[in-house]
Design goal:
It is built from 8 helices and 9 strands. It has 267 residues and is an alpha/beta fold.
Amino acid sequence: MAPIALTIAGSDSGGGAGIQADLKTFSALGVYGASVITALTAQNTRAVTRVEPASPAMIAAQIAAVFDDLDIRAVKLGMLGAGDAIRTVAAGLRARTVPIVLDPVMIAKSGDALLPDEAVGTLRTDLLPMATLLTPNLPEAARLLDCAPAQDEAAMQDQGRALLSLGATAVLMKGGHGAGDICTDLLITADGTLRLTAPRRATRNTHGTGCTLSAAVAAGLAQGMGLAAAVTRAHGYLQGAIAAADMLRIGHGHGPVHHFHAVWSHG
């Protein structure tokens, strides 16, 4: 039977992030993808023009339907929106014994806010302690900790450890918002730190990078990989997707990465 991963996130009508990016990533890595949609967004590469949340009852019904029939091996959490949705998702997953990758989506690549201030505390208290892996970028980590974004690796380490203390089993501090020619991610666990580096690429086509990375980790966990191996493969997969992004030429803003770069190209 094919391994199955579940994404619980918002829909991106432009196809570059959210549910769409997650399902593409699962498929590219050989995993069957199921989905629970928490919100509809009217979105393209330039802006998010409207967000319409799903009702808590509908979110709960989707979670129940998927788990009642499918053998879910890993869950990826993305855009959840309001506090009610976060509490609903937490309640729906509390009795499930599957690894959970939590991407604390707060701001779209266009700069539009996707998580209201009053929901940050709910995310911190209700879902963060359930996370097998938390995958914040530097602004998201700072917002979760109510502090300034990390400016160097030492601060990334400190903030990652602080997030561990809030209950996450592991934290992947993503350095894409940092400075310098090398982009550094840190996988921080109670046992130590795994450092992952890649050249910083000069491209505007980075829409969906966070969704793609966390979905790729969830795919690896669904396939039975250990956390470090899943994160390492996901990191390499994302770098390939970013390197091939410019050939897609999608939209007029921040275009998507190329999820199927290993399968097809378009020159």
